[in-house]
Design brief:
The protein is an all-alpha fold and about 100 residues long. It has helices at about 10-15, 25-30, 30-35, 75-85.
Length: about 100
């Protein structure tokens, strides 16, 4: 990974404003990935900020791009970014995701 490239959480990357206290959190609610503390630290993120595809409720338009936690995750720029940054140590490959 390029040392100058900071590892972002999904809400930072997408600038969706759905983190707690974010601009859109009152209107759209706080993102389930932001609240999923059981994934805290996974891939170096806060809560599920770098594993949003593993959190129910981040699909079907709930997330900034509307494609997380679905068969289309591999099309998501953020998913691909995390997989690239984490390379062989990445957590959350599709075959390991369970709902």
């Amino acid at each position: 990974m390029n040392p100058a490239r900071r590892r972002l959480n999904c809400w930072e990357y997408r600038m969706c404003g759905r983190e707690q206290g974010g601009l859109m959190s009152d209107t759209l609610g706080v993102c389930p990935a932001y609240m999923a503390m059981k994934f805290d630290g996974l891939n170096g993120g806060k809560a599920a900020g770098r594993a949003c595809w593993m959190v129910a409720g981040t699909d079907k338009g709930d997330c900034g791009l509307g494609i997380s936690n679905s068969p289309n995750c591999h099309q998501c720029e953020f998913y691909r970014r995390v997989m690239n940054e984490e390379t062989d140590k990445a957590h959350g490959a599709f075959h390991s995701v369970t709902r």
